[in-house]
Amino acid sequence: MSALAPIAPGLWTDEAEPRPIGARRADGEIVFPVPGGDAAALVEPVALSRKGTLWSWTTQGFEPKEPYSGPQPFQPFLIGYVELPAEVIVETRIVDATAADLVIGMPMEFTIVPFDDSRATYAFRPERQP
Amino acid sequence: MNDDVYIIGAGIHPFGRTDGRSGRDQGVFAVRQALADAGIEWPDVEFAYGGSAAAGSADIMVNELGLTSVPFINVANGCATGGSALTAARNAIAAGACDIALAVGFDKHPRGAFNAKPSDYGLPEWYGETGMMLTTQFFALKIQRYMALHGISRRTLGLVAEKAFRNGTLCDHAWRRSPVDLDAILNAPMINDPLTKYMFCSPAEGAVALLLASSKKVRELGADAVRIASVAFRTRPEGSFEVFAPSISVNGGGKPTEIASKAAFEMAGIGPEDVSVAQLQDTESGAEIMHMAENGFCADGEQEQWLAEGWSEIGGKLPINTDGGCLACGEPIGASGLRQVYENTVQLRGRGGERQVPNGPKVGYSHVYGAPGLSAVAILER
Predict the structure, then answer these.
(1) Within an 8 Å CB–CB cutoff, is residue B253 touching chain A?
(2) What is the predicted ipTM?
(3) pLDDT of B250-271, one tens digit each?
(4) Which of B90, B127, B293, B328 yields a CA-CA distance of 20 to 30 A from A41?
(5) By CA distance, what is A61's nearest residue in B?
(6) In this structure, are residues B161 and B285 in contact, taking their beta carbons and an 8 Å threshold?
(7) What are the residue ranges of helices labelled H in chain B?
(8) H helix and E strand count, chain B
């Protein structure tokens, strides 16, 4: 997977167990991702927690129109929001699960997954029990 | 200031698909109908506001309506285009700038879900590329959590859609004119869990025109007028959860609908208990359910009983989406919010025919919600 380029720079940390990178605003509020443009100067990038709980989820059963650029043929996928405690609630793909596995409040962990032949993106999956 | 502003004419081009007629021509159709309804001519209109999201500029309509030199302001405000036109037209009359003003909205969208461009919303390209920038996902994610927190069943989602299609059969401007039974709704292909195909509205075509007038003009014309008790249009507050949100605050926050609703009730000097008929944004079944609470008509979770008891049916204690709403009419963005006001005008004038709310409704409430997190509420009084 290391051959895959990140779908965008600055979304996650480069370490053995990558973490999402958010931004702390002057008022303390954390947002994800780090904003671009002039707003970037007003925030402080911050590595976020790898673990959180499922806040909501849904299925994506039909192929989105442009600018969606996922691999062909289209494969349905799961998306949701994961709450990183005391930080921020992040929108994300959900992998290694089916809709039937998902329960709001369940523990989730951050992971990097292939998006297509050349690019990787971030996702969360149900936390694996040690 | 002249706070009393009235609707004296209302026109609509049937919603749905009209091949061979442009969105703007549908707008012209609606304006002509509104003029005939008000018993006035195009040269009587002193100010005009209008727009579409995807069907071009409204002011070009003067080519068909007449080159009267009328000041015509194009409104381009996404899902709030109609609500913004109405707000502006009302304020122009309230400010004494004119006595008769037009608010018009129309649209014509391609089939299938809307495709938004990330840069238009200040979002990075990867957000769209990875398939997270869909309005349908937002509504599914919001209702999924709402159902878990407040005990709303899938059956209740289905009942909302069943009601919409049933009301649509009674409405000549609706697109979907055939009933769909509950089992068909619940068993239809899943679009975004928990929402099936029949629980979502579709982008469509259509147009609505409303003619507004001062009380002086209403008296002069002897018009069949409905008073605009209030209009309130608000964008999102800090910490709210809206469409196209890569992240949400853990601290929670307000909702644009709650804020617009409170402002509209305050301006009108009435409360939710005074409303006789309501048109609430029903992009999908769950939106109607959540918007019932956000607009103050019930507490979170009570919708389960409301739908089971039929309280939001045309004969119920608060009829909601009497023309079938977005689910039966489709959603031409520029026209959709004005359709709700049109329907309330029809109901308050007692012209609803088969779908007329019984016992002479006195107060009509309409609420539109859209990207990137805005709400407009209008309250009409008879």
Answers:
(1) no
(2) 0.95
(3) 998 899 999 999 999 999 999 9
(4) B127
(5) B191
(6) yes
(7) 23-38, 62-65, 81-94, 125-129, 135-150, 154-168, 182-187, 215-221, 256-268, 285-294, 303-309, 325-329, 333-348
(8) 13, 12
